[in-house]
Every structure is written in C-alpha cells, then in structure tokens.
Design a protein that fits this description.
Layout: E1 2-10, E2 18-23, E3 33-35, H1 42-54, E4 58-70, E5 77-88, E6 98-104, H2 115-133
Length: about 130
C-alpha cells in the first residue's frame, strides 16, 4: 500500500463547527492541509497549506498527533497525518485548488467526510476540546 504524508488543520468557529474543504475533482470533504514537500517539516507545511488553500495567516495552537487512516480520494493509499489545532488570523476564503468550503457540525451525518475527519478529528475534538469547554 502506498503512503501519503500530510499535515492537517483542526479549525473551529465559535459555534464549535469544523472547517472542511473539498478539493477540485474529489468527493470527500476534509481538513484544510496537504502533502509535505521534500524536506519540509509538518508544522511548516500546515501553515503554508492554510495560506494556499484558504488564504489565511494562521498560528499553531497545539500539535494533536500523528495518525494513520485510509486516504479519502486515493484508493489503496495509507494516509499519515500530522494534525494541528489552528487559530486563523483572517476569514477563510476559497482558493484555486478548492472546489467547496463549509463549516460542519461535529454531529454531521450528511456531509461526505474523509476518514481522517470522521474517524480521528471529530472524536478528538469532542473528547479534548468541546468536553473541556462545557
């Protein structure tokens, strides 16, 4: 099985909704983020990808961890993700490679979400961020 290594962002709004994007020519919504370039550290990748995909300056609030899931849009690929909680400095806007962007509820059952989002990010946010805010 081939491996894809990415950095991925957890971005929440004040209503505790998660920002997800769908890249052009794909069907799954996923975290803002992308593939590491040669010799690029994941923390550098995530800030670059946020700027490229949603046009925002941002800062890393927390490193969540390294996770492995199936890739959403590449059959028979393992996705290795370095996941970060991110604070945006600007309002997100769609950039060239993004087909759609939306805020989803942590209980969303209708949006076609990537395995990383559904299996890792949403449960982690519910357990580690929302539980502490209640």
């Amino acid at each position: 099985m081939n491996t894809i290594t990415v950095a991925a962002a957890i971005i929440l709004n004040p209503q505790h909704e998660l920002l997800v994007v769908r890249k052009k020519h794909t069907e799954f919504f996923m975290q803002v983020g992308g593939k590491l370039e040669s010799n690029e550290a994941p923390d550098v990748t995530i800030l670059r990808e946020i700027q490229e995909e949603i046009g925002c300056a941002a800062e890393i609030e927390q490193f969540v961890g390294r996770f492995e899931t199936l890739a959403a849009n590449e059959p028979d690929h393992l996705l290795v993700s370095y996941v970060y909680v991110i604070n945006l400095h600007d309002q997100p806007k769609i950039d060239a490679e993004i087909a759609a962007m939306q805020w989803v509820s942590l209980d969303d059952q209708h949006t076609q979400l990537a395995p990383l989002t559904r299996e890792v990010v949403i449960p982690w946010v519910k357990q580690n961020l929302i539980a502490h805010m209640a």
